Amino acid sequence: QVQLVESGGGLVQAGGSLRLSCAASGRTDSTYAVGWFRQAPGKERELVATINWSGGSTYGADSVKGRFTISRDNAKNTVYLQMNSLKPEDTAVYYCAAGGNTVQLRRGVPDSWGQGTQVTVSS
Question: Measuring CA to CA, which residue among 73, 105, 79 is closest to residue 23?
């Protein structure tokens, strides 16, 4: 199992950009998929994006397609979420999560979670 730590959140104006990072430690010698989730106050947790071990397969929710890009650098054990054209409705706590494959992540049952990083988009 890997341990995850997110960073890169903050306050940005609408239309701006942020890049979130998810650093993995622990069993990084194993292959694992990573997903980004978000949860806004009073709302259910939402899957934002996933990426498989090789980085060759990615998924993005309709709400972020064309604006957010997920990528990974396995040499650095880090997964990124580049967020462009941010909107106030993107405001949420963003969590990264790891699992054996992206199907597991899309089912919402990863093996491990990070602690979350706050993203606030002002209008």
Answer: 79
Q: Where are the beta strands (DSSP E) in the chain?
A: 2-7, 10-13, 18-26, 33-39, 46-51, 58-60, 68-73, 78-83, 92-99, 112-113, 117-122
Pairwise CA distance, residues 37 & 9, whole Å:
13
Bridge partner list, 38: 46, 94
CA distances from 112 to 14, 34, 86 (A): 31, 10, 27
* Per-residue model confidence as pLDDT tens for the chain (123 residues): 899 999 999 999 999 999 999 999 988 778 999 999 999 999 999 999 999 999 999 999 999 999 999 999 999 999 999 999 999 999 999 999 999 999 999 999 999 999 999 999 999
Distance between CA atoms of residues 62 and 81, nearest Å: 15
User: How many C-alpha atoms does 45 have within 13 Å on its Cβ side?
Assistant: 16
Residue 90, class by beta-carbon neighbours within 10 Å (0-12 exposed, 13-18 middle, 19+ buried)? Answer: buried
